[in-house]
Design goal:
This protein folds into two domains: 52 residues, Urease, subunit C, domain 1 (Roll); 232 residues, TIM Barrel. It is built from ten helices and 14 strands. It is globular.
């Protein structure tokens, strides 16, 4: 069986190409990628009508309720939503009940995802037992089981000694560690960024510097241990400057950002719009830009 998708706008990150093109798929495998408006013959031809055609997206931060809170979300419903949005690989966060903090849990999630056959389902392992921040989880065994990276998700590992041990151990496997940059004491209970708007609305808030403070600590430990590191959801201009300096020193660090923080700012909270209560909170327009 051959399928040709023609008259598409190709977005090819491997070659940095963005323009017209076509793709030939034979027996489920992409065999030809043509740049330009070239005709293509196949058993089935689909005219994309100028729509975008790109490799499947990968969502590295997916939260589901399975296991433990299936009424909220299941691996099946998350996979269906992902496929509908062009996401072909999802990485499930370890904030389930129980937490994904041992190889059996990693194996369960990946076997369950494979059985569904909808999208590629992978797991991120917890960095500490139960995401409690006090005892290192079984990182080596989870890495062997297929965990893609290790994180406590929204829970900040406040104990620097514990995080240093996690990073040092992960270095032996070349494993990736991800941490949320938010000082837990400055950020506790905050729903907005400190400033005129939060004061006027009477909202509990945290200063934007809470992100930079935690990031500075995390990157110091990265420099000490040499671990591969992902900054989990950066949202302020000051933190970007810290990240740039770290990369300039040769540290292997990257950062993720929420689409919400690229599209909205704190003014969108408006008259207490609860659906704009985010973690990290929305920032001023100067940070969004």
């Amino acid at each position: 069986m051959s399928l040709a998708i023609v008259n598409a706008r190709l977005l090819d990150p491997a070659s940095d190409y963005d323009g017209p093109g076509a793709v030939l798929v034979e027996d489920g495998v992409i065999t030809v990628v043509e740049h330009g408006a070239a005709p293509m013959r196949a058993e089935q031809v689909v005219d994309a009508g100028g729509l975008c055609l790109a490799p499947g997206l990968i969502d590295i931060r997916v939260r589901t309720g399975e296991p433990g809170a299936e009424p909220k979300e299941t691996l099946k419903s998350a996979s269906l939503a992902a496929a509908a949005g062009g996401v072909t690989t999802i990485v499930v966060q370890p904030d389930t009940d129980p937490a994904v903090d041992d190889p059996a849990m990693v194996d369960f999630i990946q076997r369950r995802g494979a059985a569904l056959g909808l999208v590629n389902v992978r797991a991120a392992g917890a960095a500490t037992k139960g995401r409690g921040g006090s005892r290192m989880a079984e990182i080596g065994l989870m890495h062997e089981a297929g965990a893609l990276y290790f994180t406590d998700g929204d829970h900040v590992i406040a104990d620097s000694r514990v995080l240093s041990r996690v990073m040092s151990y992960a270095t032996a496997f070349n494993a990736l560690i991800a941490c949320r940059p938010a000082d837990p004491w400055l950020s506790e209970g905050a729903v907005a960024t400190s400033g005129e708007l939060a004061t006027r609305l009477g909202l509990p808030s945290a200063p934007a510097i809470a992100e930079r403070i935690q990031l500075e600590r995390d990157l110091a430990l990265v420099e000490q241990t040499g671990v591969r590191f992902l900054v989990d959801q950066i949202s302020t201009e000051a933190a970007l400057e810290v990240l740039a300096r770290a990369r300039g020193r040769g540290l292997e660090v990257a950062a993720s950002v929420s689409i919400n923080h690229l599209c909205f700012n704190e003014v969108d909270i408006g008259d207490y719009r609860t659906f704009y209560r985010l973690d990290p909170p929305l920032r001023p327009e100067s940070d969004r830009r």
